[in-house]
Amino acid sequence: MVTLETPRLILRRWHEDDVAPMAAVNADPEVMRWIRDGSVRDERQTRGGIRAWESEWESQGFGLFAVEIRSTGELAGFTGLSVPHFLPEVLPAVEVGWRLGRSHWGQGLATEAAVAAVRFGFEERGLERIVSIAQVGNDASERIMTKLGMRPVRETVNPTCGRRVRVFELSSDQYLRRTP
Predict the structure, then answer these.
(1) If you average pLDDT over residues 42-60, what whole number do you get?
(2) pLDDT at 172 over 90
């Protein structure tokens, strides 16, 4: 089982007791504003999502990590790697993504977690390219992508919801040139 640690976070696989706190994150309309059509998700949907994320770990050797605050043990949300099947035009690709509860915004935690996930993808899983996808207007996510060294490569429409998205990209060569 893969576990990553950063100064403030533990990125780990999912536990049964993560369902309720992740469902609370998914039930917040402000958190979900930039996710697909903006719909919130309930506990049943969250449980199904976690099962799917764990299944991706088993089939791909990577997936979405539960993000735990080291000092408190609280679940903050997720970050990690997944295949963006919802946007076939970018495939084959692996996407880095994140979703944190509002109480964890504005502290650099999403960036800290995403840096660890990108490092894992390139250094541990040997990925050649990682993308990240954000709806147009989601400036906070685009700032994180820029901090990761990613650059915008296309703007298109998410066919699952009709919203415009920007695709950012980082190659393994670009990553290695940035890493001391």
Answers:
(1) 97
(2) yes
Spatial contact of 178 and 170, defined as CB atoms under 8 Å apart: no
**Whole-number Å distance between alpha carbons of 110 and 88:** 26
Calculate the dihedral angle through the C-alpha atoms of 135, 159, 31, 151, rounding to the nearest 10 degrees. -30
Contact indicator for 130, 170 with CB cutoff of 8 Å: yes
Tokens matching residue 127: 């990925």
| Dist CA 62 CA 51 (whole Å) | 14
Condensed to tens digits (0 to 9), the pLDDT of residues 120-151 reads: 999 999 999 999 999 999 999 999 999 999 99
Mean pLDDT across the chain: 97
pLDDT of residue 1: 84
83-115 exposure pattern, b = at least 16 Cβ within 10 A, e = fewer:
bbeebeebeebbbbbbbbbeebeeeebbbbbbb
CB 25 within 8 A of CB 37: no
